[in-house]
Write a sequence for this structure.
């Protein structure tokens, strides 16, 4: 498939796809006219790249992790890096849950204040 089709299927911009290629995260073959062509597996790969970016991993780390993700083979160093990234993500999840709980508390308090007709006052 061509780059525009991959962009449409993944919801990722053409510019981002070109960046992924520059970072060696994604590969394409070139036609005789120089157009990029991707395999059907590129959709899954782009989605994985997006997930890893969303988790806060930089492209350099994603590049290191890709062989393990694709083949399932890993060195002890790579396994340690994966565990470290997982622990970092777990910390982010804990922080986000705490933030959500605080927002729920504020919403509940503001809702109760609204229902009683009393103005909300800053604490």
């Amino acid at each position: 498939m061509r780059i525009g089709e991959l962009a449409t299927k993944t919801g990722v911009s053409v510019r981002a796809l070109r960046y992924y290629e520059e970072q060696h995260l994604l590969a394409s073959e070139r036609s005789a006219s120089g157009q990029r062509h991707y395999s059907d597996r590129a959709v899954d790969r782009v989605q994985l790249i997006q997930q890893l970016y969303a988790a806060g991993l930089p492209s350099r780390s994603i590049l290191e992790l890709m062989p393990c993700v694709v083949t399932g083979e890993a060195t002890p160093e790579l396994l340690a890096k994966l565990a470290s990234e997982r622990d970092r993500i777990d910390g982010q999840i804990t922080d986000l849950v705490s933030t959500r709980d605080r927002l729920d508390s504020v919403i509940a308090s503001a809702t109760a204040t609204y229902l009683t007709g009393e103005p909300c006052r800053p604490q």
Remarks:
- The helical segments are 3-10, 14-22, 42-54, 59-71, 76-116.
- Residues 30 and 69 are 25 Å apart (CA to CA).
- The first strand starts at residue 29 and ends at 30.
